[in-house]
Amino acid sequence: MELTGFNSEALWSTGLVERYRTVAIEQLGPARFERLLQEAGQPRGRRNVQGDWDDWDDGLLDAARAVTQLWYTGSWPGPPPFVVSPHAYARGLAWTAAGLAAPATAPAGYGSWGHAPAGESAS
Amino acid sequence: MTPRYDVIVVGAGIAGSLIARHLGDQGRRVLVLEAGARAADPDQGNRDALATYFSASAKVPGSAYRPQPAVPWPEVTDLTGTDAAPGPGFRTAGHLPQNGPLPYASGYVRVNGGTGNVWTGLAPRMLPEDFDTESFGYGRRWPLDYADLEPYYRAAEGELGVSGDAAEQRAHAGLPLPDDYAFPMQALPASHLDRLLAAQLDGRHVKDPVSLDSVALRVVGTPHARNGVPNPEYDGGRGYVPRGEHGREDPGNRCVGNASCIPHCPSYAKYTPLKAQGQWGPSVALRDRAVVSRVLTDGTGRAAGVEYLSYDGVATRVHADVVVLAAHTVENARLLLLSGLGTRSGQVGRNLMDHPVLLTWGLLPQRVGPYRGPGSTSGFEGFRAGAGRRLRAPFRIEIGNWGWVWAKGPVDGDVAELVRERGLFGAQLRRAVGDRISRQFALQFEMEQGADPANRVTLHPHERDPLGLPRPLVTYDLSEHVKDGMAAAKAVSDQIFTLLGAEDHTDYAPAAAWPGRFEHRGRTYGYRGAGHAAGTHIMGDSPAGSVVDSWQRCWDHPGLYAVGCGSMPSVATSNPTLTMAALTLRSAQRIEADLAERDRPATLTSHAPRTPSTPHTPGAPA
Ligand SMILES: Cc1cc2nc3c(=O)[nH]c(=O)nc-3n(C[C@H](O)[C@H](O)[C@H](O)COP(=O)(O)OP(=O)(O)OC[C@H]3O[C@@H](n4cnc5c(N)ncnc54)[C@H](O)[C@@H]3O)c2cc1C
Ligand code: SF4
């Protein structure tokens, strides 16, 4: 998706697309969610993201940010914030972006912390 | 009345579970009363703890447990900083109201296993000179010295299963370990961050602007109570078998790097009291959801038993010859105060200590790979000892492996900042988040805080907990000595950041996130609490000035022990639990000796020549 910087294959592989759709509709209301889908789904050329989004109104921008944060952390930013599920916590894209795993979700074995971190996994 | 039990232990945390295990091994009838709930099925308990932790928005120390209204505990999120005039301030909510100038910034946990479930598991010893800081002009002298405690340190390292490098501790942490000493397990591997720092800093010097010392930096591995590779040389060549789930021997159990030691180690690599409980003999019984409300004494002041409350407030009395309070620093003091015991010295509840921690954080030029492995695996030990202690609090520097989590909260905050303040989306966001998280590191400067009678726990005059018991009330402040220590620490940090070429992001703002914030010589500092509550029933060599003797027996109350970090006259710069465990094992030996004395047939005591009883506690040196 345009918002997250991860392609749809990466997003689908988390198994969270449907769940997040439900959460976003609940939190944003169906109308705002639909608008966000249309606007954010528009194919655009190379662009300065911030500039491009300047023509969005506050409501839409806020919705886009909340959904992006949801994908990056597994947590709806609120207020009040809540973690969608243990699986959502584990699949937060922030960890993928940093080439890491969320604590306690994928222990890499004795002494693994002593190695140089793996490169950011391409997805 | 015949007591049903030899010993009642109040609290099934690290101290209480160890005492119960040792007395149970001697066949003593031990009743352990635990305020918190015990998981009916420990395996389910492990899974529940993990799920609860994953689902918690604030991943605070208590976040693996659902709150239990009848037995509240203070959580770090109960404190909020304020900006109100005349200067930095704070607000408290919840179980631990406070009325001092600065906040006591640590929490604890009341579930079966106590704070011992959620601790990090760092297990260094105190230094010999730590047992007498009066010679440095602050704090209180111990009635014991390092040599007295040394055999019990060994025993505690065996009990808790400590991984460490004796040669390194000898050479670079200042511990006089004998040449043939081996820790149960070999040192845990250093983190990648430790290695990066060692490569750039070992042998470099920094200036401490307060003590004026020039100190050589060196990254030194920290002993851990978590499983590593067993040491064949341990115990005179007998070796060591790591213990895993339920404290059962599990030779292959290792720390696998979950990086969630606070609050929960899903792989049973970190020591918790549940391991001691798994080794309890048949004569030990645990009653959970039993909130002790006071200690009962007979007419002479001797301990006779306790009264406890169920969650619906029903009171029950139980009797025993020995009562051991092991409810942790704040709750032990509260129980003594609720019972009106140990009052002669006027010191009950006083001398509350912690390790106030100055945090500094930043980004290294290269990728660090944080959030892997234990919270800290190494530190800098060069600021703990020596004459500099006269001028400023000494400190231990822990290298923080978990990014900025302690300073700034989980990575959600980084994401929010990059999305909302920097306005990033898409590929730019992905790069920025990856870059931000993967280069994070932090330094944790743990200050020694000297015993000060003004820092104290009392009973709140009118606030009650849900069972109707007065809440503990804390009055707390930091001395100039500690503040000067923080000033020195910040200056040391600045030099380290420069040597590393690191981007410093340290900023004790916003006010709300830094309840522990103060101005000192024109600069603002913020601190957190390490969770190392100590003092409140400190030991000493006379009933006039202390609450317990060196065996942690309450003066004036035969049969009553108060064990835990609360007995420590100084908290030193080492994480306190190993020392506390050593003291506990020493007390277990004493209790067994008391009971053996009680059981000695009258004819023997009156006619036979008195031989000193030399009880042998398994695991403790004979
Ligand atoms: C986040 C965190 C990290 C830490 N990391 C480290 C570390 O790395 N190294 C280190 O040395 N120390 C560490 N500590 C400190 C360590 O956890 C404590 O020193 C240790 O747990 C104290 O053991 P205890 O048995 O005295 O108390 P606890 O482990 O807290 O046990 C006390 C027990 O008493 C029970 N209890 C309380 N009141 C009552 C009552 N009225 N009736 C019956 N039962 C009661 C409680 O429910 C609890 O089970 C850390 C602490 C925290 C909070
Ligand atoms: S790093 Fe992981 S496996 Fe190791 S002790 Fe911590 S939680 Fe347990």
From TrEMBL, chain B:
<dbReference type="Pfam" id="PF00732">
    <property type="entry name" value="GMC_oxred_N"/>
</dbReference>
<protein>
    <submittedName>
        <fullName>NAD(P)-binding protein</fullName>
    </submittedName>
</protein>
<dbReference type="InterPro" id="IPR036188">
    <property type="entry name" value="FAD/NAD-bd_sf"/>
</dbReference>
<dbReference type="Pfam" id="PF01266">
    <property type="entry name" value="DAO"/>
</dbReference>
<dbReference type="InterPro" id="IPR051473">
    <property type="entry name" value="P2Ox-like"/>
</dbReference>
<feature type="compositionally biased region" description="Polar residues">
    <location>
        <begin position="603"/>
        <end position="616"/>
    </location>
</feature>
<keyword id="KW-0560">Oxidoreductase</keyword>
<dbReference type="GO" id="GO:0016614">
    <property type="term" value="F:oxidoreductase activity, acting on CH-OH group of donors"/>
</dbReference>
<keyword id="KW-0274">FAD</keyword>
<feature type="domain" description="Glucose-methanol-choline oxidoreductase C-terminal">
    <location>
        <begin position="454"/>
        <end position="583"/>
    </location>
</feature>
<dbReference type="InterPro" id="IPR007867">
    <property type="entry name" value="GMC_OxRtase_C"/>
</dbReference>
<dbReference type="InterPro" id="IPR006076">
    <property type="entry name" value="FAD-dep_OxRdtase"/>
</dbReference>
<dbReference type="Pfam" id="PF05199">
    <property type="entry name" value="GMC_oxred_C"/>
</dbReference>
<dbReference type="GO" id="GO:0050660">
    <property type="term" value="F:flavin adenine dinucleotide binding"/>
</dbReference>
<comment type="similarity">
    <text>Belongs to the GMC oxidoreductase family.</text>
</comment>
<dbReference type="InterPro" id="IPR000172">
    <property type="entry name" value="GMC_OxRdtase_N"/>
</dbReference>
<keyword id="KW-0285">Flavoprotein</keyword>
<feature type="domain" description="Glucose-methanol-choline oxidoreductase N-terminal">
    <location>
        <begin position="286"/>
        <end position="357"/>
    </location>
</feature>
<feature type="domain" description="FAD dependent oxidoreductase">
    <location>
        <begin position="6"/>
        <end position="40"/>
    </location>
</feature>
<feature type="region of interest" description="Disordered">
    <location>
        <begin position="594"/>
        <end position="622"/>
    </location>
</feature>
